[in-house]
Structure formats: structure tokens, C-alpha cells
Amino acid sequence: MGDAFIRHIELLGYEKRFFPSQHYVYMFLVKWNDLSEKVVYRRFTEIYEFHKALKEMFPIESGDINIENRIIPHLPAPKWFDGQRSTENRQGTLAEYCYSLVNLPHKISRCLHVVNFFKVRHDDMNPVTDSQIKKPEVFLLPKDSQKNLTDITGPIVLQTYRAIADYEKSSTSEMALKAGDMVDVVEKNENGWWFCQMKNKRGWVPAAYLEPMDGPDESEEQEPNYAGEAYVVQKSYTAVEEDELTLKEGDTIEVIHKLLDGWWVIRKDETTGYYPSMYLQKAGELNTSVKSGLRNRGAPPRRSTIRNVKSIHKQGRKQISQETYRRNSKKYIQNQRKMRANSHNKANVIIEKNEPEDNKPKAQPAVPPRPSKDLILNRCTESTWRKIL
């Protein structure tokens, strides 16, 4: 396998910390070539020192020899005192800088200096903190602002969720939970793994183990779409539960309900069932999956398989039975078939009505009745009436 390199760097926002003294760090989601995603935290002073060293390593590309040859982006120097306002206002500049940095020629964007700076450090996973001092405050960059970097709005406070059961982590990138633990969600991934933080801990957590504080129902969850979206299976999976489907790599299916725990309801022909969303890719999209990356992280556990659940809500989550999925899906397919049949029949009628006159058989003239004997004798010539005598 080749050397590691960064595919994308996304600025998530910033964090206000109070230990050992009040300061600010920026949060970056770093996506690597093996499809792993890591969240790292860097002070702006660190970023600026990294930038200066990068310019020294590539003097031509930094414009030190000829300003016209500069391709390394600009980055303003840190202020004498960085407060919350300057930290917030600098987000647009930093987001643009990261975008430009990753898109530089490979000799720059994939050099060890860049790779090492954005690698996960020990304090990214376990920041130095003091239990007597209040926990850090997190402010996320709004989604709309990520599309329009020049329009940075106010901060967004992270959502707090509660663990409904104990969870033992299976890798160093995950975070263990105890029932009742309160976590702040930094990133919600549709594959069912959410990046969370709790005091001085950070890591990936199965969404199935978390519940919102205000109620059991997830307002973010979409309604079923029985028309279905075409997806292609990127990794085979053998069903464990009765309501799951067994599929092979390359199979084409339709997704009819996307659920937050990462287990989507899919349709194969007229059969429906659950399948891990992280093993699916939308049809027509470029194949960016790496098999080794898929194997490194397995599918998250399903909500229905969690034991000893302790929810704070009296009313449970609204769940749709698999029979309802099958019935509604079958009804939709039947209606589609009827509509296609009706449209086909209408098309045939229109063709018959619009058939050209040349193609229609021409009407044959009627044969006149034979004249009577008296009529021939009275009106025909002598040569004619002699033939009937």
C-alpha cells in the first residue's frame, strides 16, 4: 500500500477551552486516502508556524523568488491577542486555506510536513483538562457557510445526547459509554457512526446507543420513500437477523428508508429488509470505496439488538414493521405496473386513431342488382334482348 495522504480537510468550527488558561482551537475533519476520517484540534499559532515552514520548504511556490509563481495560499499572521470574535471571523479564511492546500501539486499537498501536521495526536483524543474547570464550549461552522465561505454566521452549539446502554469500544478510534452518559455530537455520519466528545474523551459511537433529550423520535429521520433510490452494493453481507437481507458485491438494490442508526431498509425485486448503509453506494456515483477501508470499520449495531436499554422517555421510538414496509412497497410496485399498462393501452389507442388513410383497406364498390327481363326488352337494343329470348 502506498504512503498515506490527505484527500480532504474540512473546518468543522472551533472550541473554547479553559485549561490551563482560556484559549481557542480549531476543529478539522481530515479525510485520508484509506477512507478513514479523523478530527484534529489545532491552535491558530500552530497553523501559522506550519504555514511559515511550508513556505520555506517551497520558496518558488511561495513566491519568495518571483511573486508571479506563488501558488501556496496566503495566511494572515496571528494577532497579539486572539479573542472569540477574531477566532470566529477567521473561519472563512482557514476553510479556504485548507481547500487550496489539499489541491496543490502532490509534491506539496502530500509531503511529510503536511501529512504529519494533520495526523492525530495524543491530545486530540485525550486533551489535557481539569475536572474542576468547566468543560470546553464548541461552536460549529454552519453547513450553509461551508458552501459559501464568505458568509460566516453565528456559532452553533453542539447537540447533547444520552447513552441508553453500556457500549464497549472495539477500536482505538471509538469511545466507550456507560448508560446515562451525556455526550456532545460533533459529526453525524449517515453510516450510523457519530463522532462524539465527553469531557476529555472523543471518539466514534454507534448512533443506536444514543437518544435525544427532548423525546424518543428523531425529527431528522426521513419518511419512507417507496419509489426507492438506486444503490449498488459495495461489500457483501450475510444476514444475521430474520429481517435483514443477504447481498453480494455488485448487486443493485433500491433504498426505501434511510435510518439514523445506519441500517437502511432496502428493496431487492419485491423483497425488503435491513442492510448496512456503509456497504452501499449511490448508483451513478464514482466508485471511491476502498475494500480495506470498509473492512477496518464494521457495521454499527442495530437498535433492536441492544440489551438492557434504559431510556428516560416513557414512550418508545415509533418503529415501522417489516411487514408494513413489504406491504407498502408491494402496493407501490403494483400501482406502477398498472400505470405503465394503462399508458401502454392508451398509446395503442392513439396509434389506431392516427393510422394513415393509405394504410387502411379501401371499401369495395357494391354490385348492382341484375336488371329484370322486362327492363331489358324495353330499354336495350335488339341484339341484347335477343340473347335472353
From TrEMBL:
Q: What is the lineage of its organism?
A: Eukaryota, Metazoa, Chordata, Craniata, Vertebrata
Q: Outline the segment boundaries, as ranges, of region: Disordered.
A: 347-374
Q: Is the keyword Cytoplasm assigned to this protein?
A: yes
Q: Where in the cell is it found?
A: Cytoplasm
Gene name of the encoded protein = Ncf1
Q: What CDD domains does this protein map onto?
A: PX_p47phox (cd06887), SH3_p47phox_1 (cd12021), SH3_p47phox_2 (cd12022)
Q: Which InterPro entries match?
A: NADPH_Oxidase/PX-Domain, NCF1_C, NCF1_PBR/AIR, NCF1_SH3_1, NCF1_SH3_2, P47PHOX, PX_dom, PX_dom_sf
One Pfam assignment = NCF1_PBR_AIR
Q: Identify the Gene3D superfamilies for this entry.
A: Phox-like domain, SH3 Domains
Gene Ontology CC annotations of this record: cytoplasm; NADPH oxidase complex
Entry's Gene Ontology molecular function annotations? phosphatidylinositol binding; superoxide-generating NADPH oxidase activator activity
In Swiss-Prot or TrEMBL terms, this protein is called NCF1 factor
Which residues lie in Basic and acidic residues bias regions?
352-361
Coiled-coil parts of chain = none
Tell me which UniProt keywords the record has, alphabetically: Cytoplasm, Phosphoprotein, Repeat, SH3 domain
The residues covered by the SH3 domain are 156-215, 226-285
Write out the GO biological process terms.
Answer: respiratory burst; superoxide anion generation
Q: Domain PX spans what residues?
A: 4-125
